[in-house]
Design brief:
8 strands; Enbac_synth_compD-like; Ribosomal Protein L22, Chain A; metal-binding; 241 residues; 4-PPantetheinyl_Trfase_dom; 34% helix; 2 domains; enterobactin biosynthesis; 24% strand; 5-stranded antiparallel sheet
């Protein structure tokens, strides 16, 4: 097994250990030769630059492998007008990528309303972008941390909010910005995020829960909404670890 395949295999095992039962996972490389796109997919990406086409194809390959792991037949996953994946009607899913890997997670729609996954490089964010991502209360928490830790924790905020955004968008079809979510982490990387505005399907004060995990050179964030779960407004007293 090559170093790259070993790294992808370890990443896939790590993500599998983080998702709840009933969620299938697959990981691919955006640099490996991808499987051919299905016609409904290829038409959406035909004018993109080659690097974007490779990335898109790797994401669709991961998605089809995740569908197989779920026990579903592979199928086309076109891109909607808003650029989100169009999953088979009985399935929910999420795709993410960075320059090292593409991750897809899928589940049966009768068990989960929505999924969200994000992968980011485990590198500190520059201090001048903190205020674009973080709300005042989050910035206050960052200032309590040692200076050398703030950038990587800010990256965790960014990744968690990206995963939550994808999760809520599946239900709401509403664009929200980073300031629409107030996130706190516990020492194990779990997070609670309060929605600070009403969106379709979720009232202001709704709490999204998920987790972030460092996987070598990457940060993985995951969020899911189980079918039948009612959103509450209790906001636990958590701390950044």
């Amino acid at each position: 097994m090559t170093t790259q395949l070993r790294r992808l295999s370890m990443l896939e095992m790590n993500v599998r250990s983080l998702v709840p039962a009933g969620v299938a996972v697959a990981v691919t490389s955006p640099h490996a030769a991808p499987e051919p796109l299905w016609p409904a997919e290829a038409s959406a990406i035909s004018n993109a630059v080659p690097a974007r086409q490779m990335e898109f194809a790797a994401g669709r390959m991961a998605a089809r492998r995740a569908l197989l792991a779920l026990g579903r037949a592979p199928s086309a996953i076109p891109m909607d007008r808003d650029r989100s994946p169009v999953w088979p009607s009985a399935v929910v899913g999420s795709i993410t990528h960075d320059d090292k890997s593409c991750i897809a997670i899928v589940a049966e729609r009768d068990r989960f309303r929505a999924l969200g996954v994000d992968v980011e490089p485990a590198l500190p964010l520059e201090a001048d972008v903190f205020s674009e991502i973080c709300r005042p209360e989050e910035l206050a928490w960052l200032r309590q941390l040692p200076f050398q830790s703030r950038g990587i924790v800010a990256r965790r905020f960014f990744s968690a909010k990206e995963a939550i955004y994808k999760c809520q968008y599946t239900v709401s079809r509403t664009l929200i910005d980073f300031k629409a979510l107030s996130v706190v982490f516990d020492k194990q990387g779990r997070f609670d995020a309060r929605l600070m505005r009403d969106v379709e399907g979720f009232a202001q004060g709704s709490i999204f829960r998920g987790l972030t995990s460092n996987s070598g050179e990457q940060i993985i964030s995951l969020c899911h909404i189980a079918e039948g779960v009612e959103f509450g407004s209790e906001f636990p007293n958590s701390v950044i670890g």
